[in-house]
Amino acid sequence: MEMNTRIISHEFEYFAPNSIQETLILLDQHGSEAKIIAGGTDLVSQMKMGKHTPAYIIDIKRIKELQYIAGDMVLKIGAGNNLRGVMNFFLPASVPYAGLYESIRSIGKTQVLNMATIGGNLCNGSPKADTAPPLLTYDARIKLVSLKGERILALKDFHSGPNRTIMEANELMTEIQLDKLPKGTSSAFEKKARVGADISKITCAVTVVRDGDVCRSCRIALGAAAPVPMRAFQAESMLTGKIMNDALTEETSQQVAQEINPPTVGRTHPEYRRHLAAVMFKDGFRRAWQQAGGGK
Amino acid sequence: MKKYTIHLTVNGEKHTLEVYPNALLLNVIREDIGLTGTKYACGTGQCGACTVEVNGEPVLGCMTLAVAVDGAEIKTIEGLAQPDGTLDPLQEAFLDTNAVQCGFCTSGMILIGKDLLNKNPSPSESEIRNHIKGNLCRCTGYNGITRAILKCSK
Amino acid sequence: MEQNKFHAIGRIARRKDGIAKVTGREVYSSDVTLPHLLFARVLRSPIPHARIKSINTREAEKMGAVCITSEDTPDIKYNERQVSIPEKTYRDRVVLPDKVRHVGEGFAAVAAKTESLAEKAMRSIEVEYEKLPAIFDPYEAMRSGSPQLYDEICLGDTKLPIESNIACHREVGEGDVEHGFKEADLVVEKEFRTGRVYHAQMETKSVVCRPEPDGGISVWPTTQSIHNTRQLLGRIFSISLNKLNVHRVPIGGSFGSSIQMNTCIPICVALALKAQKPVKLVLSREEDMYDHCKYPVIIQLKYGVKKDGTITAGELKTIVDIGGHNIQAYPLLGCMAGWFVSLYRMPHLQFDGTAVYTNKAPGCAMQGYGNPQVSFAVESMIDIIAEELGMDPIALRLKNYVGLGETFWGQGPTVRSVIRSCGVEEMLLKGKDMIEWDQRVSPDKKTGRYRKGVGVARGFHTSGTGAPTPGEVIDYSTAMVKVNEDGSADFSTALMCHGGGTLEAGAKIVAEELGIPIDKVGISPADTRSTGYDVCTHATRGIYCGGASIQRAAKEAKAKLLKFASRLLDVNPEALKIQPREESDQGHIFLPGSLEKHIPVGEVAKMAQYKGWGTAIGVASHRQVNCPPCFVTNFIEVEVDTYTGEIKTTRAVAAVDCGTPINPDLAAGQLEGGLCRGIGLALLESTDYDPETGRLTCGGTFIDYKFYTPVDMPPVDKVKTFFADTYESSGPFGAKGVGEAANNATAAAVVNAIYNAIGIRFAEAPVTPERVLKALQNQPDVEK
After folding, report:
1. What was the ipTM of the complex prediction?
2. pTM value?
């Protein structure tokens, strides 16, 4: 049993850069052998369990440059914001971004919200990352920076496999960008887990743009439903411009169930995940639709 | 591995410590500083028994590198009562509502409950349960603990 | 009633260890620290079944670590659970084995200056394993040709061959069941299963040992029995007991996980003896999860009943998958027979139990010792029968329960007594009103996505294991009570408090008996040198058995005190009474009816000291000759989401017949906690193994092993508790136990509630949402 959750058994060198630039230099030097730590809520567990044994730890928690939320037409969220900060930002008048608020709230553990960062939640690459589905439905973009320059890409292209991302070893995620959502937008997040504070069994985020009885657009994303957090594009297309009715919602939910690619190993049967995906889409859609229509 | 010198103010007392970068805040508090009210129970950030306040916010000591909180103000359960021993009202409430059985989760429960009351002096029962849901108790079924925090809700 | 006369018993008072616990100053085993302390780590097997061919500790020693292997530790077979007489104790393990039988079994250990260094040293040890085929299913294990975990073990000191991995077997019968089934109008039969639940006590098993200059050793362990720990260490290491001192340390939860002398204790002792330095060993969570679990059972249950609901016969066959070691499955099987037989009257009965070894972490007692498992089956079956007969489930229970004046098997066939206090009817009828039972409708009348259902189940546990004759199980307690020279008193006992308030009850018993205020009673620190034998704080015996010994000691101290007072007051001691007086905050001894003849307790004690009469002290070693049932009843309401299969507990009423509740608030807390764990047994918890690797699928951490959080339980005002109004004349001030009873009925009440919600009977726990949904999908009339 090569693990001990009482201590971190392996040795590493520790850096606590004060700026993005310093971080990039360190990443350039040590990238492939380094791990970035922010909140540590995931990495420290992984290190205790011997799943990661980086030779270098680069702690970005002190970098103020990564801690901001600002912007009007494009909302820019520094990757170093802790989850509680992000949650509280979206707290008042949160209708368009309710899904993101709910996803962070579902993580729930107060201490974890204080420690963990939004960047960390995405960068660990987990298909279960709770913030990924709502961000996917907002068509979020992320900014990756290295000494060689920066690139901005869609979040949907970020995850490349279970616990993997397309991020290069010398890159740092600095920002998440959200376009301002059109009038009539609302979103919701649904999560299934065994207990109140748990890793998700499956999650579903729904963002709708509503115009009376017409669904201008609907974006659907799911977590823990495929090797990466995923959008259900085909299901989405079934709703664009449609007058909503129960039959259509039902039909779309079946498409959502079809579209996911649940893992075949593990204790949850893929068919159960598909079933849940359909139910959760319907629940999430109903809530988002009602909120977008001004309540009810 | 290189040792680092860090400065921590724990319950108002200043400490200068030499720590390895892989040392966890929980173990530094328990072993180097000698305050054992903060507990190891799960080691994976799931139970909240290791909760301490760092710069006014509750965090998990078992998931925090000590070196990463260099310069921080830390409060542990031992720092909650007045220096003369007068208990915090929440500590009193824990004694009066049967919130304590084995006591192993109690330190973390009180600190997380206190955090809620600091931010929201009149939480509802569901706000209480939601705020403390990262803290596990195997003995009580949580009713006593919830009642204690409710008792302090204005 | 007699209760009204009590000044201390039944009073709600702050627990004496409370301030230490809310200020972080309570020192648990894992908090004990000593000068020059070394930290230990245990090398544990990554494979489920293997012979250790060689171990090379050279690198570890180079790092300055002290290392031990099977060659350094005594080859003495032991069973860590020491509550049975030796002839009934199955001994199959040694301190460090050369053969491992489950993943996580320790076979070497190191101690070094820091835990990091110990970890590093441990990982440097080179091991050559000879892999052996492993077995994880109890039925497969019993098949001929299956891999054998053991060739032979020891029963007491006698060698006992093991065949087909059967650790032990027990049959108990009365009457002729076949005849009984023939007499029945209805015969029902069903298989039930419960999960391999992990105790998840918050403090992982821990121990600190210090070698003493005289060749002895001092130990600060997590344990429920300091004396059994001492005796077993003495036997293993051939140390005279007077040189072996085991200290009572507060324990961070137990639920049965530390009834035994935990296996980490002798490993730590061996390290300390070799290092000649104090050593500390605190298990990591994953080590702890590979150390113990609740006994999972498969039960085949059959009842015969008459049309009017009278049970004619019952048969229970069980297979218990005990894992890699036999931590006293023999008494477990006896108790399971006892639980079965003592729930409902059966003229003809048969019990057949088999405990089977598999290559998994060993099962041990966990709150109920087979009782929640048996009650899960029996109480489910009672509901099934009620429905078949068209009877109300409560009426059927009232008709058949074993109650007042009837013989009760308590802890199995060798422990029989007659029930002298019984609140079963009261609890069923009052609980029925509180949960609004009469508004319950049958599942076929329910519609919509969310469906609620109400279920009932009853149960009991024995208060200890006492019996009129000595049996297989040891049960007695010792206590000392002395009156101090200021009118306060101290009592000492080796009883443990696991958090439920056993020692608080002790303090109230002393206060009541001596007639002094509760806050004038001190609980003395305890160790094995300064206390008489107490078997163990287990089996719901703390108050009934331990408390009785405390009461006896207090009576003896009081007799002396009154004798001294009688000399000072010139009154016959039999005529004197003691009562606490507020104005002087101590007890006063007085002659009823007289204004002059009174004197404070403190003054008597002080005068006795000045006059050289001695201390008013009492010592008692006491065995209870009964183990009366503390009955329990749970009513639970659940809400099933028929779209997802998720189940929420929305309301509960939990009642106990514990005789006089000595700590009413703490006893209610026991009921609330028992509910939470019982619901977990029903719906959530089990440790599963990967048959490829022999490892826990949850990995051994709380990341994946879940138990309920604050948001999963119903709101505080939706959980109601109450006590039956009974008085057990053989218990201290009328008291029986609570402890284990608190969760014995819960899992059954939950599945009965699920049945009432959706009309589906689940006979296997945990009832996960996925299983619920699957069952719903197979049921055509439920809207999906």
Report:
1. 0.99
2. 0.98
